[in-house]
Design goal:
Blueprint: H1 8-17, H2 19-30, H3 34-50, E1 67-68, H4 70-79, H5 84-91, E2 92-94, E3 100-102, E4 110-111, E5 114-115, H6 123-127, H7 140-144, H8 151-163
C-alpha cells in the first residue's frame, strides 16, 4: 500500500483535481462485486484509521449534521451536569416530530481540532466515516461528499483505486 496523505490542504487540492476520475471510479465500483469491495474497504479502513489521528483534523466536526437521540441528549446533559431542556436550547434543533440534530456547524463541541465531549460524543460522530459498514457501493455518493475533507476517506479511496488497478493502462 502507498504512503498516506494526511495534509488537509493537499487532500483538498487533490480532490479538486480528481473530480472526474472519482466520478468514473464511482461508476466502476458499481460494476464490481459488492461483497469483495466491502472486504477491501473494511481492511483498508482499519489500516488507514490506525495511522490517522482524527483529533488533529476535526474536519468532520466542521461539516457533519449529526442526529441526536433522546438517550444521547440525556447522557450529554448528565455529563455536562445540566438539564435536558438546557441541552436542547443550547445545542440542538428539535423538529415538530421530536427529531433532534446538532444546531451548529461547526459543532458546538469542537475546540480547535478536538471534541470537548469526546467520551460522550454522539453515535453519528463515533461511526463516521462509516467505512466499516456493509454495502459500500450503495453509499458512494455520501462517502465521496467527504473525500476532499476526510483523510481516512481520501486514503481508503486512493488505496482502493491502487488495489483495483483503476485507471491503469
Amino acid at each position: 500500500m502507498k504512503n498516506l496523505i494526511l495534509h488537509l490542504e493537499t487532500i483538498r487540492q487533490l480532490a479538486t483535481e480528481k473530480e472526474n476520475e472519482n466520478e468514473n471510479f464511482r461508476f466502476f465500483l458499481k460494476e464490481q462485486d459488492g461483497e469483495l469491495i466491502d472486504k477491501k474497504v473494511q481492511r483498508l479502513n482499519e489500516w488507514v484509521t490506525e495511522k490517522t489521528d482524527c483529533t488533529s483534523c476535526g474536519n468532520c466536526c466542521k461539516s457533519l449534521l449529526i442526529n441526536v437521540t433522546t438517550n444521547e441528549a440525556e447522557s450529554l446533559a448528565a455529563h455536562l451536569q445540566t438539564s435536558l431542556e438546557t441541552i436542547k436550547e443550547r445545542y440542538l434543533d428539535v423538529s415538530p416530530g421530536g427529531k433532534m440534530v446538532i444546531s451548529s456547524i461547526p459543532c458546538h463541541f469542537l475546540q480547535g481540532t478536538k471534541c470537548s465531549i469526546y467520551e460522550n460524543r454522539f453515535e453519528g460522530c463515533r461511526e463516521f466515516p462509516h467505512l466499516d459498514r456493509p454495502n459500500f457501493t450503495q453509499r458512494l455518493f455520501g462517502t465521496m461528499m467527504y473525500y476532499g475533507t476526510c483523510p481516512i476517506i481520501f486514503n481508503v479511496i486512493e488505496s482502493l483505486k491502487q488495489e483495483l488497478e483503476f485507471n491503469k493502462p
